[in-house]
């Protein structure tokens, strides 16, 4: 596989073309941002950890019947993925109140929901990723009703699989963000990443935060938290 020109650089990843028009290379950076890019920093080792954790999760999901963009890991921080058109939605699933759910609705963090919640935002940095509902997404032609139904069903199945996996390494999957893409033949697949950048992970015993909230909230211990998550994921692979 030959790496060709850079197609795109995002806040946490770069994407390169390859000699195959249907395949791209994702390269994970150590750069960290929060508050829609207003807070910037770097987390040593993050790129390699997020690459490894994401790939482990994508393989677990594939094994359990969720189609993803994952093809194969190339090295420490680079992975080969299927080229998809990203649907500009951020799909957030929550099992426990935290973050914007807690602040938006004026509740404390840590309330365990009877059933997961699901919400969608319009992935648009200039607008600060505004929350929207299905009818808004359809009106904006971001996705069709059928695509939204598929996305919702895939997100909830993903939650069930991931929740059980993280439970097995004594981690509560509090909430997470997914992105979906469409392949050249029109199939919807899970894309982007599943990592401590995009999930909230709490130690199931101590409730210690093992994710990017340590960076967002200036709590310190960020590198250790990412290392600890990688160690636990590795311990069951
Ligand atoms: P929130 O509580 O800030 O809405 O975040 C919910 C989950 O989604 C949390 O695990 C972090 C993740 N997330 C992202 O990965 N990217 C984003 O831009 C946002 C807003 C949240």
Your description of this structure?
The protein is of the alpha+beta class. 30% of the residues lie in helices and 35% in strands. It contains 6 helices and 14 strands. A hairpin with a 2-residue loop joins β6 and β7 (78-82). Strands 8, 9, 10, 11, 12, 13 and 14 form a 7-stranded antiparallel β-sheet that branches. α1 (46-63) packs parallel to α6. The model has no long low-confidence stretch (mean pLDDT 97). It has helices at residues 46-63, 99-105, 134-139, 145-167, 213-216, 222-235; strands spanning 3-9, 13-18, 23-28, 31-34, 39-42, 70-75, 78-82, 85-86, 89-96, 112-122, 131-132, 171-182, 188-191, 199-203. Bound molecules: thymidine-5'-phosphate (TMP).
**Residue share in helix:** 25-40%
Bound compounds: thymidine-5'-phosphate
The main β sheet shows up as: 7 strands, antiparallel
- What is the CA-based Rg, rounded? 17 Å
Overall, the morphology is: globular
> What's the end-to-end separation, in Å?
26 Å
Q: What structural category arises from helix and sheet content?
A: alpha+beta
Secondary structure: number of strands: 14
Count of alpha/pi helices: 6
Q: Mean of residue pLDDT?
A: 97
Percent strand equals: 25-35%
Low-confidence stretches: none
Tell me the series of helices and strands, N- to C-terminal: EEEEEHEEEEHEEHHEEEHH
Secondary structure topology:
Elements: E1 3-9, E2 13-18, E3 23-28, E4 31-34, E5 39-42, H1 46-63, E6 70-75, E7 78-82, E8 85-86, E9 89-96, H2 99-105, E10 112-122, E11 131-132, H3 134-139, H4 145-167, E12 171-182, E13 188-191, E14 199-203, H5 213-216, H6 222-235
The protein binds thymidine-5'-phosphate.
Thymidine-5'-phosphate (TMP) binds at residues 90, 92, 98-101, 129, 175-177, 198-200.
């Amino acid at each position: 596989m030959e790496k060709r020109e850079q197609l795109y650089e995002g806040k946490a990843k770069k994407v390169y073309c390859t000699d195959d028009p249907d395949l791209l290379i994702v390269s994970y950076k150590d750069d960290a941002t929060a508050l829609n890019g207003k807070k910037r920093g770097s987390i040593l080792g993050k790129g390699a950890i997020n690459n490894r954790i994401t790939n482990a999760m994508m393989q677990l999901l594939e094994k359990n019947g969720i189609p993803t963009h994952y093809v194969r890991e190339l090295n420490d921080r680079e992975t080969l993925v299927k080229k998809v058109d990203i649907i500009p939605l951020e799909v957030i699933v929550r099992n426990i109140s935290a973050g914007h759910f807690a602040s938006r609705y004026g509740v404390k963090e840590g309330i365990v929901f009877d059933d997961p919640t699901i919400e969608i935002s319009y992935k648009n940095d200039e607008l600060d990723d505004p929350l929207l509902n299905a009818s808004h997404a359809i009106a904006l032609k971001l996705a069709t009703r059928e695509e939204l139904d598929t996305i919702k069903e895939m997100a909830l199945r993903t939650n069930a699989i991931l929740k059980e996996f993280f439970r097995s390494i004594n981690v509560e999957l509090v909430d997470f963000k997914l992105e979906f893409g469409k392949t050249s033949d029109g199939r919807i697949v899970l894309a982007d990443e599943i990592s401590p950048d995009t999930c909230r992970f709490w130690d199931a015993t101590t409730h210690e935060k093992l994710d990017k909230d340590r960076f967002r909230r200036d709590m310190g211990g960020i590198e250790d938290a990412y290392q600890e998550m990688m160690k636990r994921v590795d311990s069951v692979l």
